[in-house]
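Page 47, continued from p. 46.
Same chain as before, 129 aa.
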Amino acid sequence: MLYPVYVHPGDEDHAHGVTFPDFPGCFSAADDWADLPRMIQEAVEVYFDGETGDLPPPTPLEKLASDPAYTGGTWLLADLDLERINPRRIRLNVSLPATLVARIDRYAAAHHLSRSGFLAQAAERRLQE
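Result:
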């Protein structure tokens, strides 16, 4: 899921800093721009480790872009892997045709996902339509 993050560009002596408007108190940094996605994911996983609540929905970037608290940097939409974040999970039983389950399992394995992770992503995408 895409969440807005604000990047404070670094320089030769300072790392690029990251602020997460939707996760107060969650921060990250990286020396290289290419490392930001990995560091962002890691920071959010640590932030929610042991939490039992649900993730807040992402704040629309249009709302944040005019906020005077964010100056001197740039916005980035971070694609967070929600399967790796530990908010409260609910176990449920579903019945699906065996052929569909086999197709889901092949797709999930090819994309390094669990069956639950695939179904959660598919549901999230459909619900965003």
